[in-house]
C-alpha cells in the first residue's frame, strides 16, 4: 500500500544490515512532501499496518474495515455509476442510426414483452426526468446530454424523440426510453424475436409476409398507417416474400 501511494518503498539502506535496522526502527516520515496530497485516513492506515508492535499492528480484517477503504469503495461506486449513465446515453443517441424496421420492431417488442429491468436505465430515466412526471421532455433530454459533454443538435434530439414517440408528442415515456437505451441484441434476443414472429404470424401458417407485418404493426396501436407504409417500404420486403423464423430474425436484427 505504501508503494502504491508513493511509488517508493517505506525503508531503504545501502546494505541488508542498514535496511533491517531502518525497518526495525520503523521511523515513518509521513509529513514529507511525498505525502502532501495523501489523505489523513491513508496515513493513519499506513501507521497501523507498518507497526513493530504485533498487538497494535492491524490484521487484514481490520485493514478492510478502516475508513480509508470505505472512501475507496464509495469513489469506485460513483465512478461505476457515472460510466453506466454515460453508456445509457450513448446507446440512446445511437438508436437513430438503426433502420426504420428494426426500430419499429424494437418498439413493438417493448410493448408486448416484459422487458428486463436494468438499474442503470431506471436510475438514468429518473435523473433525467427532472419534473418527476414519468416523461422526459426535449429540454430535459438535451440537458442530460450536455451534462455528459455529449452535445447533440436540436435535429439529433428531435430524431431520438421522433424515433420513439410516433404520436408526434415532444417527449418520451419510460418504455420508449428503455427501448432505445438497452442493448439492441438484448431487445432482439432469439426469445423476443420468436415472440414478435408469433405476434405477426396471426394466421399461424409458420411464415411472416409483408401483409402480416403491416397488420401486426397496425395492431400494436403505436403507428399511423402512413408511418407503417414508410417502415415496410424501408425494410425492402416484397409482397411475394414469406419469412420463416430464422430468416425473420436476420431481417429484424440487420
Automatic annotation (TrEMBL):
The keyword Nucleotide-binding applies. InterPro entries: CDPK_Ser/Thr_kinases, EF-hand-dom_pair, EF_Hand_1_Ca_BS, EF_hand_dom, Kinase-like_dom_sf, Prot_kinase_dom. One of its GO terms (molecular function) is protein serine/threonine kinase activity. Residues 188-223 form the EF-hand domain. The keyword Isomerase does not apply. Residues 1-69 form the Protein kinase domain. Keywords: ATP-binding, Calcium, Kinase, Nucleotide-binding, Serine/threonine-protein kinase, Transferase. Its cofactor is Mg(2+). Transmembrane segments: none annotated. Belongs to the protein kinase superfamily. Ser/Thr protein kinase family. CDPK subfamily. This is Calcium-dependent protein kinase.
